Amino acid sequence: MNFDPRYSGRNFSSVGTRPIRPDGIDKVTGRARYGADFNMAGQLVGRILRSPHAHAVIKKIDTSKAEKLAGVKAVITAKDLPDLTDGDAAMYDILDNSMARKKALYDGHAVAAVAAIDARIARQALKLIEVDYEVLPHVTDVDEAAHHHAPLINDQIFTEGLEEKPAKPSNVTKRTQFGHGDVHKGFAQADFIVERSFKTEQTHQGYIEPHACVASVNPDGTADLWVCTQGHFVYRQHCAQLLGLEASKLRVTSSEIGGGFGGKTHVWAEPVALALSRKAGRPVKLVMTRDEVFRASGPTSATSIDVKIGAKKDGTITAAEATLRYSCGPYPGSWAEIGAMTAFACYKLENVKTVGYEVLVNRPKTAAYRAPSAPMAAFAVESAVDELAHELGMNAVDFRIKNAAQEGTRASYGPVYGPIGIGPTLEAAKNHPHMKAPLKMNQGRGMACGFWFNFGGQTCTDLNIGMDGSVSLAVGTVDVGGSRASLSLVAAEELGIDYSQVKAIVADTSSLGYNDMTDGSRGTFSSSMATISAARNAIKVLRDRAAQMWDIPVDDVTWEKGHAIAKGEKYGNLSPLSLKDIAAKSGTTGGPIAGHSELVADGAGVSFATHICDIEVDPETGATRVIRYTVVQDAGKAVHPTYVEGQYQGGAAQGIGWALNEEYIYGKDGRLQNPGFLDYRIPVCSDLPMIDTQILEIPNPNHPYGVRGVGETSIVPPLAAIANAVSNAVGVRMTHIPMSPPRILAALDAEREG
Amino acid sequence: MVEVTLWGSLSAVAGGKSRHEVEAKDIRELFRKLAEQYPGIEPWIDRGIAVAIDGTIYRDTWSKELPKDAEIFLLPRLAGG
Amino acid sequence: MAGVAVSTTINGDAVEYLCQPDETLLDVLRDRLGLTGAKEGCGTGDCGACSVIVDGRLVCSCLVLGAEAEGRKVETIEGMAHGDQLHPLQQKFLEHAALQCGICTPGFLIAAKDLLAKNPSPTEEEIRFGLAGNLCRCTGYDKIVRAVQDAAEVMKGA
């Protein structure tokens, strides 16, 4: 493969326009098929029995009564999912999370499952399964779990990353450290130092579509899985490994996906559905209830973070330090590590040190949620940065501009930055009319910055040209928010044809080579790179076919604006051949015309954003209202600007919910008390104002069109921006997310009592 | 010869040193040479290490060449949402 | 359990079905009639993804029993377009990119149709409160509100 991914400045004709998405009609007419909208002949209903205990040994499971119930076709426990992980600890954890093997590790942990002819019988069958639990002490709070006297969740885990090997097991699975310089020296040079501790509560991605799949396993070892997922190829690998199937014999089709935000990057119920189908010998449809989605899938980490930042009188930061504790659920993860890497990524720091601790708790296994781990770290750091600016008597934006990272800055996580957009987003925010708009009583303005890495990854794309000259584009990255539109634009751009001539689909795992999942803001970045490469390969074929039609050497044929051109005066009599002309003759010039691409898209380019918001606080009740909100973010190049705006707005809205409302509330019994949308309240339409967006385009040097990922960064600044706004409105520093009315009132009362 | 910097936790399995001089033309050779010298690194490579070359992060392109005067930094391979 | 025989009208067509007494209208629509445009996001009336209109009233079909549709007129997303002519709300949702994943879209369209039937010239605030029973996690609602505003203008002109 000699594809050159480097940026080349060019004028675009399709990229940057805003056409209607190809999957739009199906979605406004109710025809689009999501996870639960698919059925197979003879299909059974699967349901899962879940632990009511936060921590318990499973002594015995008696399924005999359930098995005898008329209409029940299969009952399974962990015994039906034997351990085939062969020492792969991460896969073992996925297996154990799908179906508890020895211990139930959180309220909602799956312990058994049934497949029956209808939902009512399946529900009855669950009640007939007898589980004998030995309830153990549990711990759900991240700080309590990190204590040496906390109940141990896994006695085989000893803290990694310590200088001396620990003698005793611990809920702290890993310590990681990043930074450079000498923070002690740096703090000694500081005139002002701010030091604070912050907490954030656990939230859920809150996709409106619950996890759903239809699994069908045949006696010959072939199988089909229809599922809502962010990565059907990854689901295939995981399910095949856990079930002992051959990957190529398991065809996974990704349905339309009703939101994922990182929550649909991991398998949960799918291995269970496959195991049920295998045992019953019939297809099984398994759809989670909302209660199950909250109790057993998703959530992000709860965190506890200490931050210390020092600066000179002139506003130069001399040192910055953070200690970050992130909950992982009951299995090891690397969530604090990401927090430790991203915490100070916006700033130019000579002396910086971050330390992350991964902490096990009796809560569901932490899953990625949009720029995972970064929003909490940014909340703590950006709150402290704001407070330090106040102490210095500097404007919060100017203080950030003074210390912003730039090309050549050593990032707090290690490497030196190339061209980056933090400075321009800050300048744009400073000059935005929002910054100068007047505020009323009880209103406060806040701003904050955010960073995310953005990823690329393995990508495979097929571009097939029909005999009528229309183009079908098959991609392997799931479309979570309009990427079929942007990828069609890219194909049209590269081929020089109209957007309406291209139809993009997401192909199943048997139709296309492996693709990493749609995560890390990689969908449009990676698949557009593969689409460009596939289109360029197709153009080579098109030129060759035109040369045949003209009977001239292929080197004399160029491709311009959707046409083959015979170059040189000697061909003056040859009119250009359109893609359609060439396609019409393809049957006799060598058969079907296609371009393929298999590549690793790397160099996604880091992304920065600055958000501004105005919040009104009712000092009597602690209730808050978002008055105005502005997002400024670097997109590299916005392929379909409307959907880029959509990503900015959506991330901001999720951040607003996280900042003000959303949290997992556990009782003393270790049970989740609010597993529903009534009590776990995500922002509704009347909670929000319009969300203004400003797209900056600082080209990514590692993409032909300059594209960066745009999906995740927008959720990073809101927690801090809102906390700063609330703090400015009420004159009290808010240190605990979410800033629900009771917390704001408590902070105000504490201040009044002095 | 390129100079490579390892993040904190990885230094611990590489003789406690964060900076290493390695004779390597691309990422694949870099990983191989490091693993030869410090066998403890191998499981980390299997789990995933990203390589930042002049600030650009490469996660899977092991054929990526390492320019002589480039800034090379090893990072954990991360998950996204 | 014996089934209940129900005669009803769905999107203008006479429909008859048998359902269990404890079966929701949403389950009947999706599982018995193949009308999967209404989605189950919560099953508790909190998300609005299953919105339908029954006798001119906006309801969550997950909170209505299938048996309760007897003798009523039910409107679902599948009946919103007239043949190949999209409803102005459907058209404006497309033009404004008022959907990302699209799972909430049928519910929003039904709720917005009900809102505009009752209030053809809503203010932004009236739209926001009128649609507060429908959850969207992708868009931040900005483009949804704009699409409804634009559709209201078009419908007034029609």
Walkthrough of the structure:
The complex is a heterotrimer of chains A (754), B (81) and C (158). Chain A is α+β, with helices and mostly antiparallel strands and 754 residues long. Chain A is built from 21 helices and 27 strands. Chain A is globular and about 90 Å long. Chain B has a five-stranded mixed beta sheet. Chain B has helices spanning 8-11, 27-37, 42-47; strands at residues 2-6, 19-22, 49-53, 56-58, 72-76. Chain B contains three helices and five strands. Chain B has 81 residues and is α+β, with helices and mostly antiparallel strands. Chain B is globular and about 25 Å long. Chain C has helices at residues 25-32, 88-95, 105-118, 124-130, 142-157; strands at 4-10, 13-19, 51-54, 57-60, 73-75. Chain C has a five-stranded mixed beta sheet, with helices on both faces. The chains are: A alpha+beta (754), B alpha+beta (81), C alpha+beta (158). Chains in contact: A-B, A-C.
Which secondary structure elements does this structure contain, and how are they paired or packed?
The complex is a heterotrimer of chains A (754), B (81) and C (158).
Chain A: H1 24-28, E1 44-50, E2 56-62, H2 64-68, E3 72-76, H3 89-98, E4 103-104, E5 110-116, H4 119-128, E6 130-135, H5 142-146, E7 172-180, H6 183-188, E8 192-200, E9 212-217, E10 223-227, H7 232-243, E11 250-254, H8 270-280, E12 284-287, H9 290-296, E13 303-311, E14 317-327, H10 335-342, E15 352-359, H11 374-392, H12 396-403, H13 422-431, H14 433-436, E16 443-452, E17 457-465, E18 471-475, H15 483-495, E19 502-506, H16 523-550, E20 557-560, E21 563-566, E22 577-578, H17 579-584, H18 586-589, E23 593-601, E24 607-617, E25 624-634, H19 641-660, E26 691-696, H20 718-730, E27 736-737, H21 741-753
Parallel strand pairs in A: 1-12, 8-27, 10-11, 14-15, 18-19, 25-26
Antiparallel strand pairs in A: 1-5, 2-4, 2-6, 3-5, 7-15, 8-13, 9-10, 9-12, 13-14, 16-24, 17-18, 17-23, 20-21, 21-22, 24-25
Chain B: E1 2-6, H1 8-11, E2 19-22, H2 27-37, H3 42-47, E3 49-53, E4 56-58, E5 72-76
Parallel strand pairs in B: 1-5
Antiparallel strand pairs in B: 1-2, 3-4, 3-5
Chain C: E1 4-10, E2 13-19, H1 25-32, E3 51-54, E4 57-60, E5 73-75, H2 88-95, H3 105-118, H4 124-130, H5 142-157
Parallel strand pairs in C: 1-5
Antiparallel strand pairs in C: 1-2, 3-4, 3-5
